[in-house]
Structure prediction request, 229 residues.
Amino acid sequence: MEEKVGFKRGLSASIVLGLYAGFMIAVAVAVTLEDKGLIYAAFVWSLTIVISAVFLTPILANGRKRGRKNTDEDVVTVRSQLESYNEGVGRWRALSHIRGESMGVSISLTGASNPLVIIEKALLLAGDIRLIFRFSKTESELRERILPILEQKVGLSRIQRKTKSLTVIPPIVMDRGLLITRSMMLCPPLMVGGALGFSSIAPGQPILAVVGGLAGAMLGILVITNKGS
Prediction:
């Protein structure tokens, strides 16, 4: 289910982002500009909040609010997909081995004669549904055999590993709202670190702080847009 975030949520999110980003930038300004640094820092902080509220609210308000209120629909979908692999009472069955769990669907492979076939069929739904493949204590060898298969099919970045489970998460859609949110959460700390690091080379040279801030911003953008393997 997807719906618009709405103006109120968009405004609230943009103000929070402005508070966070503005504080980080204000710290860099206060440290770099010793004379009247606090005054300039307060001005920059306030200005960042206002700019965020004015320019980011329309973008975030039109973004998509993702997720379902519950996983019942996903459970029904996965059960329907795997129902043909039922093995009878006391063995693997979709009704008893597939359940809703947290924000995903849990698939227990205990007692399954063809666990690899079940996993391959379930992965057809991994683009939209969070799948949690569960193993018993005696199935650690099966888990180790399945892990490289999942890595090959969906990639390392979409797999969460635990002792008794392997979780495949849907791919993250990088829309404008998500990109802006991540940028304003990650870039300001890197910009502050870059500004302070560069200015420490030659104190009293604001141009070095600016260069360091730009370097931090570029590093943040590279990290955000990196999709991994």
